[in-house]
Structures are given as C-alpha cells and as structure tokens.
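Thread: magnesium ion complex, take 2
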Amino acid sequence: MTATAPLAANRPAQPASGQPPAIAIRELSKTYSGGKRALDNVTLDIPRGSVFGLLGPNGAGKSTLINILAGMVKKTSGSAEIWGFDIDRDPRNAKRSIGIVPQEIMFDPFFTPRETLENQAGFYGVPKDQRITEELLRAVRLEDKAEAYARTLSGGMKRRLMVAKAMVHSPPIIVLDEPTAGVDIELRQQLWDYVRSLNAEGVTVVLTTHYLEEAEELCDRIAIINHGKLIADKPTRELVAMGREKTVVVTLGQDVDALPQGRSFEKVEAIGERQIAITFDMDKATAGEVITAVQAGHYDIVDVVTREADLEDVFLKLTRENNADAAA
Ligand code: ADP
Ligand code: MG
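Output below.
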C-alpha cells in the first residue's frame, strides 16, 4: 500500500459553522438490551487532521462507540457530531463524512474487489466519473486481484479490501476498529504506511486498539476508555511519560526504620514491616541508585523485585488521579 490517498473531490463540504472538531461526542451512553452499560457518559473531541487512538482493553466499549458513529448501534443517550453533522439530525451528511473499517471482516464473497468497491460507491451515490475504484485498488495493492472472488482472497487481502471499501466516498475521516487484529507484521507495516499517507493528505484517522505500543507508534493523541468510561485524553507524549515508571520492591533483613532518600525518586513507601517500594522515572534514576540508597540506610537486602509500568499501571494511575480530582 503505497502513498496514494484517494481524491478529495467527493468529500462533503464543511458545514457553515467554522471548524468544528472532526468528531464531537457529548455525554454519550449506551446500555445494551441485556443491561450491559457499555458506554458511560463519554465526552470527547477528536481534532481535525489528527491520528487519534482510542485505546482500551477488550470489552472497554471501543467498538460500541465506533458503531454508534457508524449508525450501526443505537445510542441510549447523549449526542455526536461528525464533521459538524449531528448523527440524529443530519445522518446522511454524518455518514458521508466518515469511512469505517469494522472490526469484523464482512462483505459479499461472490463479488470481486472491483465490484465490491463499485457497489459501495453506488451505495454512497458517488457518480461514475468521480469514482476512485482503480486508485483504491492500487493503494491497497489489490490491482492484481481486482477480478478475483472476494472469498478467494487471503485474510490480509480481505482486510485491505475493507479499508478500500471505507474510502470509496473519500470521507474526511476514516476509522479503523482494531485494524491489526490477526494481521501479520508485513501487512501491519503496509497498513500503517497507508494510514500515514491518508493523514498526510489531510484525512483524520481514528483507530482503536488494545495495544499501547500500536497507539504510541501511530497516534498523536490518545484517549483511554475503560469499563465504558473515558479516563484519559492526552497527547501521546504525555501518556507515554506516565508509563516510564519503574517500581523496585526491596525486602530487608531488618524492620523498616527510616525510609531511604533519593532526589530522583517519585515515591518511597514502606509496604510491609520489612519491605520498601521505591518508584522512579526510568529517565531519571536506576535500580542501582535505589539499592545504593537502601544500603546507605544500613539495611541488609534480602530480595529485590522490579516492576515496570505497563498499560495496566497507566490505567490505575489515571483512575487514581480521576478519583482524586473527583474528591477535590
Ligand atoms: P471493545 O470494542 O472495547 O472490546 P465492545 O464495545 O465490543 O468493547 O463491548 C463493550 C461491552 O459491551 C462488552 O462488555 C461487551 O460484551 C458488551 N457488548 C457489546 N456488544 C453487545 C451487544 N450487541 N449486546 C450486549 N452486549 C454487548
Ligand atoms: Mg472492539
């Protein structure tokens, strides 16, 4: 998939009201008929021109959010605007402004890739002379398979066809829901190249993932959603910095008396009679400095365990901060 992004010709004109965010979500909630509250009062702006990551563990509510935007799941309450168009009041323009690559691969196995794209363009009412079928086939490297039945395509090819299908109407926003689930490394790289080329052409890209590294690599802004709630919405740089923490737990030969000191430690606490946990930023300190500081307190060291922050810790940290904010 090389850098050929689709033409902007068919993109809907911007609404008159200046420059709203690409997607504006307000107090959006969804409770499924079984009673599961999959989205809980989510308010979020996705800036124009960004590569935006919606990050969260499985079951967090990511697909529910995307499917509401796609018009495939009915929200329980709240509102959403896509490119300034309200999904309830102006569903037609809202739909024309977004291309969605769903998590599940789905299309008619008896059509060829070319037919699939032509049908989809017809569905969106793109006039014949404005269709970009051949360009899209090239962009996702399916020009050789243009006449093959979709059911004979490999998994990777099917996913590429899904991406092309989402772009037939040249929307200003493309959303990829878990695009690399079950995708090999080579295809992943091709997919990212294509996503970057679309973004370079001005397309706002939204992708959901449960991999922190994936979001880190691609996105300039990341929102984290957990149990249906938005718990963070930050520039990637800030979020990644939160995961640069390491905790060293030292078990001592004596009861804890005075806590060791270190200028570059973030937190020092006694977590048991003979255990101290020291947390530091990996850019500022090392486990060696921790050990030196403990030894300076004339303790014997019986055991040392180190733990690096992962997404789970970032979640916990954010949740703690959120609770502290709420209590303040
Ligand atoms: P994610 O995409 O982040 O993995 P989903 O939005 O798919 O999460 O799911 C969020 C929660 O809603 C999960 O607990 C899931 O089981 C539930 N859920 C998803 N779709 C349905 C549905 N159609 N009916 C009932 N519950 C659902
Ligand atoms: Mg999902």
